[in-house]
User: Which sequence fits this backbone?
């Protein structure tokens, strides 16, 4: 009934849970005193022995007790709020922290829509667990015990009978719990699946429309939505049924209390005031447990959501080291590097490479593993075997900041943020002046375009939606060029750029390679002809390395790739010349 891990994860909420139980208990004690006092007043009235003046102190005490109960109710609400708020804040901070730790490659481990659903709705579901369910759980253990002790002084048989009936509700909760747990796990599974499809389809709506596949996807989503509806209905059915059973026990129990108290009174075993107190208190025996039953179902939903939260928190993050870089990076060495994303398929096989200052290139057919090497070099994934050394030290021994500041991976699909060109560029170097910004803009040949717009204040929509593919890439490149990294990895960074500008940008990259380690990954072998060292990858194996001329002389894979591209490029050149 208590999720130990959940309670442990957010232990600073427990103080508020216990305070909540405390004030509810004080309120119960006040209620008991009120009931006994009212019972006594009723007896005195019945016997005509009441004296009005003697009633004033009792009335005064009753008033105080009612005010205390009012305060207790207010305090309980406040503690419940604090417990819930702390949990939400704590868990959201933990999720955020985890995402930061997972780093740039988090999306390989969990989908964005699942993170959003779990962090928003999932965490919200825990509000009831900590704010209401847990305090109620402790209170509904404490309240019947307190009442048992008090009633046992008045009439032991009534106290015993009521006390024996109390565990029926927890027993019914435990019985339903196992089934509910499975059902709710299914509910959350369906919920996140539907969320994934929804986000994916919205993001890909243009493509779906182009291929007229929207109708079919709509059908798929309808089926998923129907599954979700069915599981939701099952959850509601289970909740309503179990609540009906609990109602039966709770109100049946209260009725039992009434019957026992009446019969004990009629037998003359107890007086009127005692019978009156037992009748009213017998409902107090069961109401906390009945409330617990209602909260239990919402709390179970929270617990199922928390399983998803823990799945996220348990994803193994990269353990970064503590080394900082004191000197310049002049060497990166890859030794016997092997890697696979999924167990069945090896993507990299015993790769050995060595990068020094200058222009290095990795070439090979599509899917051969080039981008994977780039990912591993920039420490986005550490599940590899073999070694990657940076200045003779294991890459994994460096801090995240060292890696982020010194190894810059420039991919072809750099993300641009909503804001201005300036905002986006300053991410590369927050201290850059406008002059620095224009300098890199010129290097990537974006100056003419931006001058026609609002210059550095030109608007950029989310993910650069208002820019062309090439403009996005140039802006991404310009941002990277502002960084003071010592190692630059360009992964198809000029793939969307026209040949003339590409040649110009390659000059910039070549220039960069004069005092930095530059690794260029490119399909177009003409871009890497002048590389100081070329590595040819084929199906995850390093098959050749050397300078362009040496590789051509080998008359092997590189020669084949180069020849086939030459035929195409000459043909393209011929067409251009004719025009
Ligand atoms: N996240 C991933 N999960 C599983 N497999 C992956 C993942 N990313 C890449 N792969 C697989 O790893 C292999 C190498 O992919 P990689 O992206 O490194 O190729 P590449 O040489 O960069 O290709 P391209 O020239 O087309 O960019 C491919 O077979 C690909 O299917
Ligand atoms: Mg690639």
Assistant:
């Amino acid at each position: 009934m208590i999720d130990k891990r959940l309670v442990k994860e957010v232990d600073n909420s427990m103080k508020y849970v216990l305070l909540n139980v405390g004030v509810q208990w004080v309120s119960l004690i006040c209620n008991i005193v009120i009931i006994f006092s009212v019972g006594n007043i009723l007896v005195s009235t019945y016997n005509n022995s009441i004296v009005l003046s003697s009633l004033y102190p009792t009335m005064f005490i009753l008033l105080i007790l009612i005010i205390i109960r009012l305060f207790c109710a207010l305090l309980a609400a406040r503690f419940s709020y604090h417990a819930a708020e702390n949990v939400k804040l704590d868990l959201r901070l933990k999720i955020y922290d985890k995402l930061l730790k997972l780093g740039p490659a988090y999306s390989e481990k969990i989908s964005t829509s699942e993170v959003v659903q779990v962090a928003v709705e999932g965490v919200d579901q825990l509000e009831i667990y900590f704010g209401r369910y847990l305090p109620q759980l402790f209170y509904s253990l404490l309240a019947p015990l307190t009442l048992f002790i008090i009633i046992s002084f008045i009439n032991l048989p009534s106290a015993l009978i009521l006390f024996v009936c109390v565990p029926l509700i927890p027993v019914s909760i435990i019985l339903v719990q196992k089934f509910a747990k499975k059902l709710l796990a299914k509910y959350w599974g369906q919920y996140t699946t539907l969320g994934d499809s929804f986000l994916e389809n919205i993001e890909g709506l243009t493509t779906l429309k182009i291929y007229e596949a929207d109708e079919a996807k709509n059908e798929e989503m309808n089926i998923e939505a129907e599954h979700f509806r069915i599981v939701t209905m099952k959850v509601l059915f289970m909740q309503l049924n179990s609540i009906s059973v609990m109602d039966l026990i709770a109100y049946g129990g209260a009725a039992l209390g009434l019957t026992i108290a009446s019969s004990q009174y009629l037998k003359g075993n107890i007086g009127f005031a005692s019978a009156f107190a037992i009748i009213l208190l017998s409902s107090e025996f069961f109401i906390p447990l009945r409330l617990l039953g209602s909260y239990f179902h919402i709390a179970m939903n929270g617990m199922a959501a928390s399983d998803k939260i823990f799945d996220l928190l348990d994803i193994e993050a990269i353990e970064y080291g503590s080394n900082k870089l004191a000197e310049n990076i002049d060497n990166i060495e890859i030794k016997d590097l092997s890697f696979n994303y999924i167990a069945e398929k090896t993507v990299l096989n015993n790769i050995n490479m060595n990068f020094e200052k200058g222009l290095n290139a990795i070439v090979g057919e599509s899917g051969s593993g080039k981008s994977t090497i780039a990912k591993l070099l920039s420490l986005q994934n550490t599940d590899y075997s073999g070694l990657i050394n940076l200045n003779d030290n294991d890459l994994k021994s460096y801090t995240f900041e060292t890696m982020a500041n010194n190894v810059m991976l420039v991919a072809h699909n750099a993300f641009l943020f909503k804001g201005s060109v300036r905002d986006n560029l300053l991410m590369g170097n927050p201290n850059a002046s406008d002059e620095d910004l224009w300098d890199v803009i010129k290097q990537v040949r974006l100056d003419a375009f931006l001058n026609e717009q609002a210059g550095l204040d030109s608007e950029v929509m989310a993910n650069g939606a208002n820019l062309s593919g090439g403009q996005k890439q140039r802006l991404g490149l310009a941002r990277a060029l502002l960084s003071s990294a010592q190692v630059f990895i360009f992964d198809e960074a000029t793939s969307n750029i026209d040949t003339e500008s590409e040649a110009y940008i390659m000059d910039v990259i070549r220039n960069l390679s004069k005092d930095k380690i530059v690794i260029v990954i490119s399909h177009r072998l003409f871009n890497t002809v002048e590389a100081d060292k070329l590595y040819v990858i084929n199906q995850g194996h390093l098959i050749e390395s050397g300078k362009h001329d040496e590789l051509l002389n080998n008359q092997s894979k590189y020669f084949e790739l180069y020849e086939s591209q030459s035929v195409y490029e000459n043909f393209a050149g011929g067409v251009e010349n004719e025009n």
Q: What stands out?
A: Confidence is low (pLDDT under 50) at residues 573-579.
